Amino acid sequence: MWVRGLRQLRNAGIWLVLSDNKLKSEDEPTKLYTHNYDVDRINAEHLSKLPGVPKSFTAKTSGNKKLVETLKKSVLAGENLAFKIGAKVMFVKNDKEKRYVNGSLGTIIGFNEEGNPSVKLLDGKTIFAEKENWSIIDDGGKTLASYNQIPLRLAWAITVHKCQGMTLDAAEIDLSKTFEMGQGYVALSRLKKLENLELKGLNEMALRVDALAHKADLRFQELSADADNQFRLDELELIAKVFLRDNGGLIDKKDITKHKNKLKEKESAKQSTYEVTLMHLKQKVSLKDIGVARDLTTGTIAGHLIKIIKDNPNEDLSFYKPKNTILKKVKAVYDDQPKSAPISLNAIYGKLSGAVSYDDIKLAVAFIQD
């Protein structure tokens, strides 16, 4: 079975990456190892190199002690977590609002007032990671045990066992210490694209196929073929629609669009762009770095300050206050503008003959507005 597995891997093209080639990616890929000690060592080394004091999160549990222990072993978010700004992390649960999935990678760029990590995903979106609940429920709907924790884990490295069910954009995989059949398949099948795989090594066990699993796979293929022959495509579509309707799903395209729009509105109300910027400002991150983290221009972030300071007069954001010479120049022109009309940054810039940049004008206006 080992030879068959190796041949299948080679035929799929994966054999090509069994070399010293490095992934061509700006982001360091997640490393998959078969043993916990390798993973813990790599994550600890990377975290220790980041500046600052780590912020800790302890899981809250309740219910039957034995079942709680079962949850602790199965949940990918550890009982005690520690993160720093700059830490590479991975979400370990699917989000009900579809903002991230189990396996979504990102970087911690800050913490909000509640202490929740702010994570910038690889697609550029910024999300506050709020605590999630894992539970064991009996047939009557009663919760027997619960586990509440931030749905994140450090993701410079992760074990093959813990990555089951995840989808990874890129990975560096070492299967040289594989000790169970199926580990190789689990690791390799996590990736979306073959070109984002760097395979560091493998042993005989890594690609060995379990005889019973192979036999079961053949049987599943037979059953699948029987199912294909049992119904026509239009009959299957009707059955699927009835199933969705009976289980509370949406069928009509207009209803689906309305539902999506409601989710977007809910997310927008939950976390406005100004709230995200304010979270960064409180940590005295430079406007340029905030812009990079949020994929916005420095000027846009400076513009945010005008509204943020007006809406949050008690927040101390004096760290961003421009020099007094700039304040005086801008204030002299600002005071001459009619207060009944919106502030014209163009007019201020023009009257100052370009002596003050637009960004500095925005910062000055933020601190001299009534």
Q: How is this structure best described in words?
A:
Helix 8 (273-282) packs across helix 10, helix 9 packs across helix 10 (298-311) and helix 10 (298-311) packs parallel to helix 13 (358-368). This protein starts with a helix and ends with a helix. It has helices at residues 2-11, 36-49, 65-74, 183-188, 211-230, 233-246, 253-270, 273-282, 287-294, 298-311, 324-334, 345-351, 358-368, and strands at 30-33, 55-58, 60-63, 80-83, 88-91, 105-111, 117-121, 126-128, 132-137, 143-149, 152-154, 157-159, 171-175, 197-202. The protein has 13 helices and 14 strands. Mean pLDDT is 83; it is low at 1-7 and 10-26. It has 370 residues and is of the alpha+beta class.
SSE order and pairing:
Blueprint: H1 2-11, E1 30-33, H2 36-49, E2 55-58, E3 60-63, H3 65-74, E4 80-83, E5 88-91, E6 105-111, E7 117-121, E8 126-128, E9 132-137, E10 143-149, E11 152-154, E12 157-159, E13 171-175, H4 183-188, E14 197-202, H5 211-230, H6 233-246, H7 253-270, H8 273-282, H9 287-294, H10 298-311, H11 324-334, H12 345-351, H13 358-368
Parallel strand pairs: 1-12, 1-13, 13-14
Antiparallel strand pairs: 2-4, 3-10, 5-6, 5-11, 6-7, 7-8, 9-10
